[in-house]
């Protein structure tokens, strides 16, 4: 994960070291919570990203050009409802507002129960109203079907997690169907180890792959 400081109220983010910025609130932290594409984690059985050099200045070509291939669910990516529900929206048909807005990072290890889910929502709403719409779970957490029902019932926009699957890796269908059926965006494969729990502004807009079942994204958190 990369981070930097940017200057508020300016169209250009001027870098500044954290120790230089101190408590000056004219500067804010930016966290890159995405995996690099090449060398990223891959769900068991999925093809890994590959790249090759199509043109090279060193080889006498006029320019450098890379050709690459990857699965829509490699590394840090977003699941569309179409991933598990054949009659639902593809990635390019989801309102962009779901991918950007107030979010809350909350730590958890192990299975996420229904009570855990309720506690997370309450904690996020108490911290910053609206942050409960986008929950990012930090740690080795597995969302259970019961927790998925709570999140879906609460009408959240997005649920993020660090693993390559929001539910049990060996049985992902039930949790995905509950959440995607409620049009909850699933942001999988994020990296939160250096992000403190709390409220942020999230931007994880995916590539517009039209009626595809998912897409890679560059997920970024901004200090509020």
General description of the model:
This protein is an alpha/beta fold. The chain has two domains: 31 residues, no CATH class; 147 residues, Putative cyclase (Glucose Oxidase, domain 1), CATH 3.50.30. It has four helices and 14 strands. The protein has a ten-stranded mixed sheet, covered by helices on one side. Strands 3-4 form a two-stranded antiparallel sheet. The relative contact order is 0.21.
Percent helix range: 10-25%
Secondary structural class = alpha/beta
Average predicted local confidence, pLDDT = 90
Biggest β-sheet description: 10 strands, mixed
Alpha-carbon Rg, integer: 18 Å
CATH architecture of the largest domain: 3-Layer(bba) Sandwich
H/E element string?
Answer: EHEEEEEEHEEHEHEEEE
Q: Which fold name corresponds to the CATH topology of the largest domain?
A: Glucose Oxidase, domain 1
The quaternary structure here is single chain
Number of helices: 4
* Beta-strand percentage range: 25-35%
Number of strands: 14
Report how far the terminal alpha carbons are from each other.
19 Å
Shape: globular
User: Into how many domains do the coordinates divide?
Assistant: 2
